[in-house]
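Researcher: Re-running this chain for the archive, since the previous output was lost when a drive failed. Same request as before.
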Amino acid sequence: MQIENRYCEECGEQLTANTDHCGHCGTASLDDEELSETDDDWDYASGFQPDRTLGRVFAFLIVLTLVAIIIVMNTPSTGPNRASRSEVAEAERQEPLSEPSKAIACRAAIALLNGRSPSSVEARPLGGDLFHVTHRSPEDNIVWQSRCQHLSRGTLMWAAFDPFRDGAGQGRWRTEDSIQFEMNPDRIQIVIATQGQGSQRRTYNRSEFE
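Model: Regenerated structure tokens:
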């Protein structure tokens, strides 16, 4: 913008061309280029000069808000609508076992007690949580029989059945033996503590019972 007449900003005295100071009060004056840059910031129609600092503050707040949104979206929820891993695992442990899974647990327990392959052990449901378990001894080809009872989720007890093949039927429950198991879709782990013989632990793949 070309300004023909220039005036002192301090006292209003008209300035002569190419002067750096007011001849009346001595105040330094702006040159044409500085006046042009200053004038560009003014809205001459309204007399308003934009506040560039306010614009920078708004831009900073927008960026800060976007960062906060991204952080919230990527933070795992710990509220009541999302259970922790331990809660999920506990829920799975409390879910009732299916009959085939109960049969596998009995087969695994009897296999470990007798040192047999789980694939050679069979379990037949008798109703409720009771199973009749059989396995054939490869040494003498004798079929050995047992009973297996689920006491609670992860706990079994067992009893021999007609061990002398004399029609005596089921023997007493071996309550002195502790049989615990944990099962997932891929594996089952059996822990047996027998009185006077210590404990033994074994993990089987579910495929071994097929």
